[in-house]
Design brief:
This protein is of the alpha/beta class. The chain has 24 helices and 13 strands.
Length: about 575
């Protein structure tokens, strides 16, 4: 169990006092300065514990204590860990799209350090036409070399262990955190780049080492006993410059830092621009290996999730192939596997029972059913249960999975949306429970829809418990530079109408909101033009009617009549669609 000794970012005076008492001086393995360090946490490694410190000079976090073992041996979970990696754990989509974004031509000399199984090497070779090679001492690399025919050297990389100017692109994903002395290794990578070359590096983000980070992200991020130095964006940028790179970019994406050094791409393109090539690679891999193998099933599962998210019709045919592959390997179709209750399985037993990416597959299937107007509740519930089984099995070998955790949060959010549509009670409590479990983002995303639905159902008491959605919508309403979305407009309209229908409500406040909403809708319409209607445009005339009602509730009938005439005139001036005939 993780024991927190400090709360990073806390403004509490008591926490600050405790932090000061825990400061001591030591030599930082990242910046090599004798500097104060803060004890952040301690975590178990076998029967001992390691301690994580934060350097007060460069910001890097580093562990002290016993390490778990050599990377040339099997990881915790043995061969089952490889099954997890291929079916579920590998973030090949992110790696593939970052490589594409570099914009390098076919024939690019590509080296990946710490390549593991070699999935990104295979993508670069098949799709981008690069000349590839990898270095990795782990058994995963041996398996990748055999199954994909990749040129992977089974060895550790030592400082100065690469030929100078031998690569156009070097990729080091989840590598530098394993180095006890990062800067000399980064210098080795820089020296191996040709002029105009690029280093692409990803590593866990120390900024996410917080008590409120869910275990699904936190446990892999820490990897206590395996990770040595965990960088912040600032400390990593410093280390790259110290290693000799002049041009450096470090961005944080969730719990991961993504760094580029050397020649940077000319312009950033959205991820959607690269998705088709990633999809093609998944198709090619799925066709090249048996569908029931870990690699083949993992490719099919990832492609299915991608196609569902993109809303492509091909997804349903792929579901059939995926379901058939599951039946061939595990004896049952995917939904049957999900519906059979089971708990307390080891990772080995789970590998034998069901796909390790079952939770994500079921979440995508639920989205498909929802779009088709079919009942998705059972599939979403199955996704939550499958995510729980996987995470429990992984915790048995000292690991966890952030994607499975997020899938469970997303599925619970979907169940809450279904519950509010059925006018079930307790929606605010379920949203709060989702937030406390770590699903803050998902709860925040659906809270406006829940609020709107509850107001439309006249469930005002429940809706009032979700009033936290209002400040953001009001802020966007009053800031002309901020876009007013259809959701913002609906939240404001519903909040105003609720003010006029509840005991103790404030019609005057509702009138003010509705007047501002009308103004923003007209202004947006004028800016967009008649051929590109502004968000929330359908609420213009309902807002007029609701505002007139507010004036009448205040006994201001002349003001209501004046508003009717003024709204008609403003609509004509803006060439806004006329009020529909009753």
């Amino acid at each position: 169990m993780i024991e927190w000794h400090s709360s990073p970012g806390s403004a509490s005076p008591d926490d600050a006092a405790q932090s000061r008492r825990r400061l001591e001086c030591a030599t930082c393995p990242n910046c090599h300065r004798e500097a104060e360090r803060q004890l952040i946490l301690s975590a178990p490694v076998d029967t001992a514990r390691v301690r994580l410190y934060a350097c007060q000079a460069c910001g890097a976090h580093y562990f002290e204590g016993p390490m778990a073992g050599a990377y040339s041996g099997l990881p915790a979970g043995g061969t089952d860990a490889l099954a997890f990696y291929l079916q579920q754990g590998a973030n090949i989509g992110g790696m593939a799209m970052r490589l594409q974004a570099l914009g390098r031509p076919p024939g690019t000399a590509f080296l990946e350090v710490g390549c593991g199984f070699g999935l990104s090497l295979d993508f670069a070779r098949r799709i981008l036409g690069w000349q590839v090679r990898g270095l990795d001492p782990s058994p995963f690399a041996i398996a990748g070399r055999e199954q994909l025919g990749l040129p992977i050297e089974s060895r550790y990389l030592e400082a100065n262990g690469l030929d100078h100017a031998s690569a156009d692109v070097i990729h080091a994903s989840e590598f530098i955190e394993h180095m006890a002395d990062p800067v000399p290794m980064l210098a080795t990578l820089r020296q191996a780049l040709r002029p105009g070359g690029t280093l692409l590096l990803t590593t866990p983000a120390a900024e996410m080492i917080r008590p409120d980070t869910g275990d699904g992200l936190l446990v892999p991020l820490l990897s206590a006993g395996w990770h040595l130095v965990i960088q912040t964006a600032e400390s990593l940028a410093w280390a790259l410059r110290e290693a000799g790179f002049e041009t450096v970019s470090v961005l944080r994406e969730g719990a991961q830092l993504v760094a580029m050094a050397g020649r940077l791409p000319d312009a950033a393109l959205p991820d959607a621009a690269f998705r088709p090539q990633y999809h093609e690679w998944l198709r090619q891999v799925a066709q090249a290996v048996p569908a029931q193998s870990d690699l083949g099933f993992g490719a099919l599962a990832r492609l299915y999730r991608e196609l569902v998210i993109a809303g492509l019709a091909e997804a349903d045919a792929l579901w059939q192939a995926l379901d058939g592959a599951a039946a061939g390997r595990w004896g049952h179709g995917l939904e049957r596997l999900a519906a059979t209750p089971v708990a307390g399985l080891s990772l080995s037993a789970l590998v034998a029972r069901e796909p390790l990416g079952l939770a994500g597959i079921l979440l995508a299937r639920g989205w498909e059913r929802k779009r088709a107007g079919e009942a998705p509740q059972g599939v979403f519930a199955g996704a939550i249960a499958a995510a729980g089984r996987l995470r429990a099995a992984l915790r048995g070998v000292g690991a966890d999975d952030g994607d499975a955790e997020d899938v469970a949060f997303a599925a619970e959010a979907e169940l809450i949306l279904l519950a509010v549509a059925r006018a079930e009670p307790g929606i605010a409590a379920r949203l709060e429970a989702l937030r406390k479990a770590g699903g803050q983002r998902h709860a925040d995303n659906i809270a406006p829809t829940c609020f709107i639905t509850l107001v439309n159902q006249a469930a005002f008491e429940q809706a009032q418990r979700l009033n936290s959605v209002l400040p953001s919508a009001l802020s966007n309403l009053r800031a002309a530079s901020q876009p007013l979305t259809s959701t913002d407009a609906s939240v404001l309209f519903c909040a105003a109408t609720m003010e006029m229908q509840t005991h103790g409500g404030q019609p005057g406040l509702a009138i003010a909101w509705l007047g501002q909403l009308r103004g923003r809708i007209l202004a947006s319409h004028c800016a967009c033009g008649a051929d590109d209607m502004a968000a929330g445009a359908a609420l213009y005339w309902p807002a007029v009617d609701a505002e007139m009602l507010g004036w009448r509730l205040l006994g201001q009938h002349k003001a209501a009549a004046y508003l009717a005439a003024e709204a008609e005139h403003a609509a004509r001036e803006a060439r806004f669609p006329a009020r529909a005939a009753a």
